[in-house]
Amino acid sequence: ALPELMRRFPDITCLFVGDGPLLSFLKKRAADNGVFDICVFAGTHQRMDEIYPLMDIFVLPSLREPFGLVLLEAMACGIPVVATDAGGPPDFIKSGKNGILVPPADDSGALAAAVAELIKSPAMRGELSASARKMVAHEFDVSKTVSRIEGIYRSVARASRMEGK
Predict the structure, then answer these.
(1) In whole angstroms, what is the distance from residue 112 CA to residue 79 CA?
(2) Tens of pLDDT along 111-155?
(3) Residues 11-24: tens digit of each pLDDT
(4) pTM of the shown model
(5) Residue 77 has what DSSP assignment?
(6) What 8-state DSSP symbol labels residue 95?
(7) Residues 66, 43: contact at Cβ < 8 Å?
(8) How far apart are CA 20 and CA 136, in angstroms?
């Protein structure tokens, strides 16, 4: 999606945070696609609270994403998110309401279109961000999450006591 976005928005910069076994492949792919110069490969950061404010839009184009904690973090920081409709993100991202979901795999056109829409519409970014912040605060509040986990443990404990009788 980056070559298309770079053509439409020549001042765009893409920040990659993290590293891993695919980092060298990602850098080579960026070079092969002519977008390496607009990419910043920042490596791993322990203080993401210092990184999130640098972002205008957060994109997670995973083919498979079990949950997507980084999406919740970005949403809680008020960053509009674009993610693939794969795995866990559709459980908490309501496309067009608190983020944007696009098809997974090689549909770079849909990804580019979603990011472009957010770049062009500060109002939409603001609406998605506000809705996302509220959802994260309501649905993923620490005390509620702990209470849900305790409920699961109690349920498992009750079931094991019943089996022991």
Answers:
(1) 17
(2) 999 999 999 999 999 999 999 999 999 988 878 777 888 888 888
(3) 999 999 999 999 99
(4) 0.85
(5) T
(6) B
(7) no
(8) 28
